[in-house]
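Q: Got a minute? One more chain.
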Amino acid sequence: MSFFDQLKANLTNAGRTAQQAAKNMSDSSALKREMNTEKSNIQQKYLEIGQTYYEQHQNDPADPFAEQIASITASAKHIEELEAEIQAVQSRKADLVPVPQATAPAAAPQPTAMVCMQCGATYDTTQVFCASCGQKLTPQYPTPAAAAAAPAQTAADVQQQPVAPEAAPVPETPAPAPETAAPAPETTDAPAPDAPNTDSEA
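A: Always. Here it is, folded:
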């Protein structure tokens, strides 16, 4: 539930509580006024009984005070009923609505293992550098689909799963140098043979 739903429920409950408290006070005040009226009646009857008793000087009040005694007894009984009703009114509670509970924010995902991106070695989450090549380790987190389908894996579980190492870069071999043509052998012009002298023979 959102914050506004909680605020709406709390304001509704506060209004209903204040309304119920005001109604309880109004009803209690009405009952107390009625009870005070009965008490005043009793006091008035006491005065009448005392005055009558004083005037007649009688030790047996059965006949002259019968009406006053009956009125006092009825008022006393009514007072007890009103006191019980006041206690019931004061204990009434407002009809509250349920307050929605705030949803706790989702916990941040924790890495399940540390992986070396250079050589592919896997370590638990306490390691920082690779023990083989010294490369700084990279944390490995569970994918959202895997986290929703199954509980998060522990570092030991991830460490048991082989991680394919990245292919090592192939060193470039230098191209062979172009072959140079061998120098052609030098040729020397041989002297032409002398022509036979035909004049001497003649």
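A: The chain has five helices and three strands.
Q: Perfect, thanks.
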